[in-house]
Amino acid sequence: MWKPILIMLLCLWTGGRLEAREPVKVACVGNSVTYGYGIKDREADSYPAQLQRLLGEGYEVRNFGRSGATLLRHGHRPYNQMEECRQALAFAADKVVIHLGLNDTDPRNWPNYRDEFVDDYLSLIAAFREANPSCEVWICRMTPIFHRHPRFKSGTRDWFWQIQQKIEEVAALARTGLIDFHPLLHCRPDLLPDALHPNPEGAGLLAQEVCSHLTGNFGGLQLPVTYSDNMVLQRDKPLRIAGRANAGETVTVAVAGQKVRTVTAADGRWSAMLKPLKAGGPYTLEVKAPSGKHVFRNVLAGEVWLCSGQSNMAFRVSQSVREEVEVSLQHAATGPQIRLFNMQPRWYTNDVEWPASTLDSLNRLQYYAPARWTECSEPAVRAFSAVAYAFGCMLADSLGVPVGLIQNAVGGAPTEAWIDRKTLEFEFPDILYDWRQNDFVQPWVRERGTKNITLSDNKEQRHPYQPCYLYEAGIEPLECYPLRGFIWYQGESNAHNLEAHERLFRLLADSWRGHWQEQLPLYYVQLSSLSRPSWPWFRDSQRRLLSAVPCTGMAVCTDLGDSLDVHPRHKREVGRRLARWALHSTYGHDCTPSGPLFRSVRPEGNALYVSFDYADGLRSADGAPLRTFEVAEEEDRYVPAQAQVEAGCVKVWSDQLQHPRYVRYGWQPFTRANLVNAAGLPASTFRSGER
Question: Which uninterrupted H or E stretch holds 424?
């Protein structure tokens, strides 16, 4: 009834004519990525074509991409001299999206004309604004160039990031929008078959991001996967709550009597900073915006730790020796509040071939099953990491506050899988190349990965053991959830090459601390005793890393090993030894954090006197004479030695040598070394000489 009347009134108002609204004109300007190079049906599947479908009939999207184009006017193929540029300017678009810079990384361009980049970009933007003074302009941080590109290490890698920085400067100077294409694809090398050009799926991700920026619709209010009922928020430091929402929305965050409002930025990101929370609860955390509302109940404030590594960290409470299972379950029933966030793989890296559906999910980084924070029920504790749970119990008992534990550990995973891609691209690029044929990667790791993905015909098929994968699938999604620190039990899958591991372990610490933008403590477990020849050297290397990587601590567990089983079942004490480091170094408690750690050696007569840190009450663990000390006059020519505690040191000698110079201890793959301190904590394997 009302519709005809409304049409009649509208006709009278417009002089009898119904004028159709002109579509919003969108110009996609760029190089081969915009053009759709390498895409079989680029007319349908390039990112501008997909953008048209997303935006619908109210928009007219044109593709003005040109393969090989440079932003630099003195570059080898300047965009401003191309026919596509003239056509784009003549189009006089309402909205302009520019993605240029990739070809400027060519050695013919950036080394010679880098000083002209900002001015050249500003001139191009000015030309579009002159063509349509009311147009809106967005410029894009570049899509990735992967290590497989032939010029990657010879300059492209470094120049790429210099250009990325300049693009941000241009956006600020020209007051344009800034669309970040890089993170969309940097974690998806499988979508760039030639290391440079996205396939149709990759182009679809670009189209979706551009669509969100043009419309302001980022899918409504969203928070990271770590937010749920029963969560633990880190106490006693400014608390950052962050997520996404639609552009320009006001987001309100309320908890424990605090209420903070913030406005979502043009890229859909928002962040609210709360004052430090005192330990306690339960609280209700409420986050709301016009596009959505999330209410999280039974929230506690306390200490939050990320517990990661490979199978010995993933080793469940239920797999431990029976008495340790009983102690853990008793603590769950009667002890302080501990909450668990258990990130479990959807597929285990057993000796099997994975089906096509699994392989596709892996490429999409869908490796972990959905997780939620849970209270300590018996089933939840049984399924949780035995080491992490013991660590949390000792903290909760000693501190008297709630503790939140995030378990993210994958059996067999090498260190390099947990490090972010940019760090490896700059600091250890050689480990990225052809990882299943790469000697930096342990043979067992390569073989198991190859077995799991046998059925894939994708040359860039992903796997959890691939360098960067677990960082991209399991660390990035945590989105800097506020933590106190990390505990780490890993090394078995890198023990074949301790020199490579020393580099990787440093990079792991830098990578994670960089991600959280804080020098969080990292406490790790030294490998135990096992009949593998390389392990004495590897254990000593881990000991030396204590002084090489700041804000770390190492739990020694050689006394808890099993000569035939890489998964010793006594895990509770390992977790408690990690907790000693945290209590001592993070929380300032007066407790001994470690067993004796080698400090120095001095010769005196025909004996050596060995000094240790954490040496109060040196003794043998079993009352028997000290075992496994060896001495040498020349490195690598060791003989068994006698040893005894004397004046706070260990005196070591052998009747076979008159002038010993070097000493080592616990230098057996499976060792029965028995030196401990007053706290009963075992001494680390060590070697006094240089490698």
Answer: helix 421-427
Vertex 546: Cα angle to 544 and 547 (nearest 5): 80
DSSP, collapsed to helix, strand or coil, labels residue 672 as coil
Six token digits for residue 179? 């669309």
DSSP secondary structure string, 250-287?
EEEEEETTEEEEEE--TTSEEEEEEPPPPSEEEEEEEE
The beta strands (E) that lie in 66-135 are given as 95-99
Is the pLDDT assigned to residue 676 strictly greater than 50? yes
Q: Where is average pLDDT lowest: 379-383, 435-439, 565-569? A: 565-569
- Write down the pLDDT at residue 689: 82
Instruction: Using DSSP, state whether 379 is helix, strand or coil.
Output: helix
Q: What is the pLDDT of residues 299-351, one digit of tens each?
A: 999 999 999 999 999 999 999 999 999 999 998 888 779 999 999 999 999 99
Enumerate the H helices of 457-568 as residue ranges.
469-470, 498-516, 535-548
> In 562-683, at which residue ranges do the beta strands (DSSP E only) sit?
597-604, 607-613, 619-620, 629-632, 639-640, 642-646, 649-653, 662-665, 675-676
146 neighbors 106 (Cβ within 8 angstroms): no
Q: Reduce the DSSP state of residue 133 to 3 states and report it.
A: coil
Provide the token pair at 516. Answer: 């959280």
Q: Which two tokens stand for residue 56?
A: 């619908």
Q: What phi and psi values does residue 33 have, to the nearest 5 degrees?
A: -65, -45
Query: CA-CA distances (angstroms) from residue 440 to 198, 446, 461?
Result: 29, 10, 19
Which pair of structure tokens corresponds to residue 182? 């890089």
**What's the CA gap between 392 and 304, in Å, rounded?**
9
pLDDT digits (tens, 9 = 90+) for 69-116: 999 999 999 999 999 999 999 999 999 999 999 999 999 999 999 999
Task: Quote the distance between the C-alpha of residue 676 and its chain's center.
Answer: 36
**Terminal CA-CA length for the chain:** 91
CA distance 510 to 114: 30
pLDDT at 14 over 80: no
d(CA 241, CA 229): 15
Statement: the pTM of the whole predicted model exceeds 0.90 = yes
pLDDT (tens digit per residue) in 489-511? 999 999 999 999 999 999 999 99
Report the distance separating Cα 574 and Cα 578, nearest Å: 6
Between helix 498-516 and helix 535-548 the angle, nearest 10°, is 40
Which whole-number Å values give the CA distances from 338 to 29, 348, 373, 395, 422, in the listed order?
A: 53, 27, 10, 10, 35
Strand partners, 261: 252
- Whose CA is closest to 598, among 679, 652, 641? 652
Report the distance separating Cα 484 and Cα 234, nearest Å: 7
Are residues 215 and 291 in contact, defined by beta-carbon separation less than 8 angstroms? no
607 has which bridge partners?
A: 604, 653
Can you list the alpha helix ranges (DSSP code H) found in 92-228? Answer: 110-113, 117-131, 157-174, 182-186, 200-215
Q: What is the maximal distance between C-alpha atoms in the chain?
A: 116
Environment class of residue 632 by beta-carbon count within 10 Å: exposed (0-12), middle (13-18) or buried (19+)?
Answer: buried
Using an 8 Å Cβ cutoff, are 193 and 368 in contact? no
